[in-house]
Design brief:
The protein is α/β, with parallel strands linked by helices. The chain has one domain (3-132): Response regulator (Rossmann fold). It has 5 helices and 5 strands. It has a 5-stranded parallel β-sheet, sandwiched between helices. Helix 2 runs parallel beside helix 3. The longest helix has 14 residues, at 38-51. The chain is globular and about 30 Å long. The relative contact order is 0.18.
């Protein structure tokens, strides 16, 4: 599945730069937008909704200040999930806790749970998995 628009939501600037480099090498992904907070990402999604250019894939970190990934997902599901059910949401986190994984996968919008660091192989595997699922 080609990804016209990918949104990465993570407060780790260095990690975001690395993810951006990895993504730039993958031809199936055309555009990437990076937001460092859940609030900023929700504002961006509101603009996407208005312009009808909603992201195909969201990569969401769990551990962020102000609004963590769980709060973001709850807001996302309330506001956008029913309108954009084809958008895939994937948790990208440093958490190794089973509790976090189980809670994440309990959301109807979350397609997968991945641990950092994101590598090209992991991302290509994710795209392949999303294509099949």
């Amino acid at each position: 599945m080609p990804i016209d628009n990918l949104l990465l939501i993570d407060d780790d600037d260095l990690g975001n730069q690395l993810v951006s480099i990895i993504i730039s090498d993958i031809p199936q992904i055309k555009n990437i937008k990076i937001d460092s907070s859940g609030w900023s990402a929700l504002d961006y999604l509101e603009q996407c909704q208005k312009s009808k250019t909603f992201p195909d894939l969201l990569l969401v970190d769990l551990k962020m200040p102000e609004m963590d990934g769980f709060e973001f997902i709850e807001n996302y599901e309330e506001r956008y999930f029913s309108q954009f059910p084809k958008t895939k949401v994937v948790i990208l986190t440093s958490s190794i806790r089973d509790k976090d994984k189980n809670q994440s996968l309990g959301y109807k919008s979350v397609s997968d749970f991945m641990q950092k660091p994101l590598t090209e192989d992991k991302l290509l595997g994710l795209l392949d998995k999303l294509n099949k699922g």
